[in-house]
Design goal:
There is one protein chain. 40% of the residues lie in helices and 23% in strands. It contains 9 helices and 16 strands. A hairpin with a 5-residue loop joins strand 11 and strand 12.
Amino acid sequence: MTLSDKVHTLIEALPYMRRFDGKTFVIKYGGHAMVDEALKNSFAQDVILLRQIGIHPVVVHGGGPQIGLTMKRMGLQPQFIDGLRVTDTDTVNVVEMVLAGAVNKEIVNLINLNGGRAAGLSGKDGHTIHARKLLHTKRGNDSDIEEHEIIDLGWVGEVEHIEPQLLKLFHQSEIIPVVAPVGVGTQGETYNINADHVAGHIATALRTEKLILLTDVAGVKGADGQLISSLTAAESRQLIQEGIISGGMIPKVETCLAARSGGVHTAHIIDGRVPHALLLEIFTDTGIGTQVR
């Protein structure tokens, strides 16, 4: 890149820096970006830069592979039904230890080592994430309702309510909050919750400018296999109905749609395998992923 190219990049970013000054972004951090050392540092640098120019990032992280690895080391066998982790008492203890402990503090340390200031918390802190048991319906071999079965996944939860006061305190400081997707029930019980869903609910509760989901794919692709850079809610639902949006992309798009309906201005699905993916999506005219508007 020439000096002229660098200047052009800065000029292109300037209007976005002005527009987003003082705004809050909720960023779901997961996938390959949490594993590759270069990508981990690039993510930390992006988040720090956002905070230094007046944007308030809130990081929500996953940690499925780390949970699975720790369980195997402890002699526990991970089990999944329809892609959801079966979470018995032993498993939920591992989930809390890994997500709210090791993974959360690793991300906090990563941001701090790169020159930022971060603090970790889980949904139990300040009762930030109120949760209830997730009732999962397993479908039979056909569409007959009689073939459907309610599966008990154990301590797997869904967000019932977000209490945003603790997160709002960070807005008044230079500290970047890093949130583990562990919720708390009415009796103090621990629930393992999907990180995408937690990020969407937090974004809605804070009425943020953006919800950004980092994934291991480029974004939403059309029938021709090409990346779709921008989608309306109606277009998204049509693509789901036609089966073009399928598999694991469906819940991500539905999370974006729910956040948009809840007052979030824009939602993005971007490729976390790209170095500095956050900056490229936020501060360039074309972006690199899919924006749901």
